[in-house]
Design a protein that fits this description.
The complex is a heterodimer of chains A (148) and B (82). By secondary structure, chain A is of the alpha+beta class. Helices cover 30% and strands 35% of the residues of chain A. Chain A has 4 helices and 8 strands; from the N terminus they run βααββαβββαββ. Chain B starts with a strand and ends in a 6-residue tail after the last strand. Classes of the chains: A alpha+beta (148), B alpha+beta (82).
Chain lengths: 148, 82
């Protein structure tokens, strides 16, 4: 079921500051509860090697629409008031923010549950692909996600 | 050999794109073609690997969904976002 609540989705080709994004998002101040997730790039790769960077590829057009669709479905399922998504694309370096999900609702339960469900949906159903770049210059595509 | 009935656009991403050496190409559409038959005709193998998903016109679809003239067919290797 789709939702008509405010859903704010953006792909960021440059580094973004999650707390600044939240400060500009009015809904966490006008609702009683906000669930927030901030994901940052790890400094170690899937084989424990030190990483120089990561390249995040997406499917222009489909990725944006899929994020809107996933947010709308999650919002309707959990009965929340507003959703914010920011997701990096392009070259990312360790400790930079990769993803921000924020969900505002009138109670903590829906806000937290929706935030977690939406993050998992993004990880599995939004077309993004990560390529690790090690300090030695080796590149490796990551298939799938880290454990919950 | 099946008759051609127009063309589709095939798109590849991430590891698939690098393995194939191209990201987008026009491909002749044969009667009754679906994503699996295009995958095979491109020489990628007999079966679409587990975890590789299909999008037609930027919507997830079944590999057996019949293709139409002008469709954009994308093969999406396992997703790793968030």
């Amino acid at each position: 079921m789709a939702s008509s609540i405010p859903i704010d989705v953006a792909l960021c080709s440059n580094a973004f500051e999650p707390l600044a994004e939240l400060q500009q998002w009015p809904h966490h101040q006008s609702n009683a509860a906000t669930g927030i997730f901030i994901g940052r790039m790890r400094s170690q790769g899937s084989s424990a090697e030190e990483l120089e960077a990561m390249q995040l590829e997406h499917y222009p057009g489909m990725t944006e629409r899929q994020l809107q669709h996933l947010a709308s479905d999650a919002a309707a399922s959990h009965g929340v008031r507003a959703v914010l998504i920011r997701h990096r694309i392009g070259r990312v370096t360790p400790n930079q923010a990769l993803v921000l999900v924020a969900v505002s609702a009138d109670r903590r339960g829906p806000a937290q549950r929706c935030c977690q469900a939406l993050l998992e949906a993004i990880k599995h159903d939004a077309p993004f692909w990560k390529q690790e770049i090690s300090r030695s210059g080796e590149r490796r595509w990551i298939e799938g996600n880290t454990p919950l | 050999m099946q008759q051609s009935s127009g063309s589709i656009t095939v798109r590849l991403f991430a590891a698939l794109r690098e393995q194939a050496g191209w990201d987008q190409r026009s491909w002749p559409l044969t009667s009754g073609a679906d994503a699996l038959s295009v995958w095979q005709a491109l020489g990628f193998g007999d079966a679409i690997p587990d975890g590789t998903r299909i999008a037609i016109n930027q919507e997830f679809e079944s590999p057996r969904q019949q293709l139409q003239q002008g469709d954009e067919l994308a093969f999406l290797p396992p997703i790793s976002g968030g």
